[in-house]
UniProtKB/TrEMBL annotation:
Subcellular localization(s) per the UniProt record: Cytoplasm
One matching Pfam family: MarR_2
Cellular component, GO, one term: cytoplasm
Keyword Oxidoreductase: no
Naturally occurring in which organism (per UniProt): Candidatus Thiodiazotropha endoloripes
Record-given protein name: MarR family transcriptional regulator
Keywords assigned by UniProt, alphabetized: DNA-binding, Transcription, Transcription regulation
Any one GO MF annotation of this record: DNA binding
Length: 188
């Protein structure tokens, strides 16, 4: 399969999902980018929940993300808190209302219904192939992977058997290592 054919499939798939997400979001006064911000914040770790990380992950400008965050705060869907160590940095998190709404809207119903009609084997194969494609796109374009912490080269074990990040030199929780991180680098 050549890249043109693959692009056509991916573009169509993206448009179908975006349309379904737009329909779901409109019912709640939300644009797709606002749902994307909420979704990202629901899967990232505490080192990646900043406005800058959101901009990097979504490939959006700081201005767009800043306005999106303001709207989500006004709607009571996310909270901003100042970093204890560096007052210039803010961390973002979903409110209970934001989490509840996101659980209802993402993944979009269209995708959930389609996946329900596929075998477990087909879902696994598609997931694996899409993961390979995403990683190839990121690597060939020098972009950050935003991978799951436990697959990172910096992830290690502390003396007490817990998890430890060798990049930031801090202990990690079980929750941290199951989330995506903007500092992720694939283990060798």
């Amino acid at each position: 399969m050549d890249s043109n054919s693959l692009y056509n499939h991916l573009e169509r798939l993206s448009e179908l999902l975006r349309t379904d997400l737009r329909k779901s979001g409109i019912k709640h006064g939300l644009q797709p980018v606002q749902l994307e911000v909420l979704h990202y914040l629901s899967v990232c770790n505490r080192y990646s929940d900043t406005p800058l990380a959101v901009s990097d992950y979504l490939g959006q400008t700081k201005g767009t993300v800043s306005q999106t965050i303001k709207v989500l705060e006004q709607k009571g869907l996310l909270l901003r808190r100042t970093d204890a160590g560096d007052k210039r940095v803010s961390h973002l998190g979903l409110t209970a209302k934001g989490s509840k709404l996101l659980d209802r809207l993402v993944p979009p119903p269209m995708l959930t219904n389609a996946c329900d009609n596929l075998s477990k084997k087909a879902r696994t194969q598609i997931n694996h192939a899409l993961n390979q494609l995403v990683m190839a796109l990121l690597q060939s374009n020098g972009m950050k992977s935003f991978g799951v912490c436990h697959t990172c080269r910096y992830n290690g074990r502390s003396e007490d058997g817990g998890y430890y990040c060798n990049l930031v030199q801090q202990p990690l929780t079980v929750d941290d290592v199951q989330r995506i991180c903007r500092e992720h680098e694939a283990a060798a």
